[in-house]
Amino acid sequence: MAVSNQSDLAETSRLEAFSDGVFAIAITLLVLELHAPVLSEGRRLWPALLHEWPQFAAYLASFAVLGIMWVNHHSMFRQIERTDRGLMFLNLFLLLWVTLLPFPTSMFAEHLKDESINAHVAAAVYSTNLTLAAIAFSLIWWYVLRNHLVEHQLTKAQLRKSVLRYSLGTLFYAAMIGISFLSAKVTLLIAFLLAMYYAFEQLRTRD
Amino acid sequence: MAVSNQSDLAETSRLEAFSDGVFAIAITLLVLELHAPVLSEGRRLWPALLHEWPQFAAYLASFAVLGIMWVNHHSMFRQIERTDRGLMFLNLFLLLWVTLLPFPTSMFAEHLKDESINAHVAAAVYSTNLTLAAIAFSLIWWYVLRNHLVEHQLTKAQLRKSVLRYSLGTLFYAAMIGISFLSAKVTLLIAFLLAMYYAFEQLRTRD
Amino acid sequence: MAVSNQSDLAETSRLEAFSDGVFAIAITLLVLELHAPVLSEGRRLWPALLHEWPQFAAYLASFAVLGIMWVNHHSMFRQIERTDRGLMFLNLFLLLWVTLLPFPTSMFAEHLKDESINAHVAAAVYSTNLTLAAIAFSLIWWYVLRNHLVEHQLTKAQLRKSVLRYSLGTLFYAAMIGISFLSAKVTLLIAFLLAMYYAFEQLRTRD
Amino acid sequence: MAVSNQSDLAETSRLEAFSDGVFAIAITLLVLELHAPVLSEGRRLWPALLHEWPQFAAYLASFAVLGIMWVNHHSMFRQIERTDRGLMFLNLFLLLWVTLLPFPTSMFAEHLKDESINAHVAAAVYSTNLTLAAIAFSLIWWYVLRNHLVEHQLTKAQLRKSVLRYSLGTLFYAAMIGISFLSAKVTLLIAFLLAMYYAFEQLRTRD
């Protein structure tokens, strides 16, 4: 029961392969939301491209978010030894928010420069998507700990630290929903900086 | 003949990898059918988004359907020890309905609020797609049983139960075609609830 | 040199995984070329859908073609023991025509019912795409035989038969280019029937 | 430390699988940027298709570029024995430019025949994307050498040659940015020829 056998390992690997596929597709589909500027006669391409900076900024932020999520998923599942149906469905709950992200990304880019409330709403929808993904990560981690699906070598301190880490991530993203109503542009910047922070924090503490 | 050898196992794993790829892509492509509301000057984003609830409801239902289908495919192929060309083509027949699903999903969302017969037709097309996928699952299971491609440890009772299970699923989805002509919205709700039912039923009986 | 070692096998498996990915994506992207009919006020959905039968027929034909190509690729690479850069590039040449197929499929569907020369041109472009894919398969097989990358257990008769088989396939598809100028609809039917023929021929002779 | 263990190998293989997925999707998404000509009544398809040659030329060039990049990535990671977070993020930096490529490809095709500065700008944006990908490859190689993540069998001469090779590639692509302002069409041709050169150079020197 405690020792993972061959078929359990196989199942974990198919779950990871499916998740990798979804992450890889979602991160690549982001490009479909980028549109070359439609130029009227005699207009120049370069200033038109610069004018469309919000779509590139949103692309970059979502690429960074999905990239770090994939690395995070990867790290998490390296510590998970066995899987069951419950984990499979919680993982689908996470993938729901991963696959959805291109939609709020595109909507965010479209309204980022709006002077109206629409910029704030688009930012809040984007932030809510990220928050729900962070909640999904927390639920998965809580579930695997509760059901003893992880490696036994983790110490109490490591466990506490890992739970704290996921809870804090969820809080950060939830705070972004509030910030959305202050400034859409700052919200996008924070999304990008949070991804960068997690990247460097992982580089420093885990290897 | 009874014992699966290395090359048979390899073939099963490539079949599963290909199927995983198709499931992962189909479930991720659903997002491309979501469109941010096109706002005229001075219109507000939030009510426009709420007004587009059918596309989010259809997205959620199809995500749940494809997710549970993937879990189901996964469970089924864990019990299949060997594969042959016949199984490969039946699997393609299933994948045909998996890859097609984004099309009726988008059409269903577009017509869900129509007062005319069109809402019922769109619901019926969607239900027919799900029914054909359920038939494909039944055919695969019937084929692997008949050709002794499954594990030998299954008892008679387990076999009977598994056949009954797939047949009932097909009946449920076929009934949805009829319900489509009563109410499109109820049809979509049932599609979602059936997926949830299968999720929890699997959680309970299989682990 | 003759015996495949671990790193050669690993390379073959990554080549197959990449090809599987491309096949899975191309077969799933076909659905993006399907468009729900745009209805004017009071028009009914069902007859409008039936009127759009060419796009469903073209979808089905291309799904069958890509499906059988994947099975064929699968069978071929099970017989290939080792790979080298030449094989990798010939495989990319094949994948070029695999990834391109959604484009002529969509164009074929759009012009299938045209009374003008355009229907024949669209059919010929589609047939040319299939012919180039068949040529790519023949080149790969010729290359692996010439460079001794296949299993040693194949007899002379089996080799001759396999070469004949790929050459005939290429001839059949090339003949479709000519038939395109007689009837676009017959061309599409032949594409579908050829895929079915290969499916059943493989079922019969290989297992 | 020097000997790669099971979990390191597993991690490398998941990194490669994720990258393969991204490459496979990016190369297949290129087709979505191809559009059948929209014909007014009585217009003929064939000349309209020929008139759209830039989109096919750009498709072919980007397919060749991504194809050779994938082969290159493949060769590089066969020499990498272990991975760490740093490598994972540098790899994401490379994949950023891989997934972005369909966007400048489509913009390049659209403006290739423009008489204005726009053709040059589109060519320069395309070349910049390729240059950034080449820089990413160089960074990865520099990083794995510095951190001793590669096989030990490489001689000093081989190492020097490999560093030179990546640096030269970066220089070639950077030079394309300059050439963009002389001729957009020549730039596209060079992108294709560089991919072909790398293909044949690898065929000759590596097997």
Automatic annotation (TrEMBL), chains A, B, C, D:
The keyword Transmembrane helix applies. The chain crosses the membrane at residues 17-36, 56-73, 85-103, 123-145, 166-199. It comes from the Bacteria. InterPro entries: TMEM175-like. Keywords: Ion channel, Ion transport, Membrane, Potassium, Potassium channel, Potassium transport, Transmembrane, Transmembrane helix, Transport. Its main location: membrane. Signal peptide: none annotated. PANTHER family: ENDOSOMAL/LYSOSOMAL POTASSIUM CHANNEL TMEM175 (PTHR31462), ENDOSOMAL_LYSOSOMAL PROTON CHANNEL TMEM175 (PTHR31462:SF5). Belongs to the TMEM175 family. This is TMEM175 family protein. The lineage of its organism: Bacteria, Bacillati, Actinomycetota, Actinomycetes, Propionibacteriales.
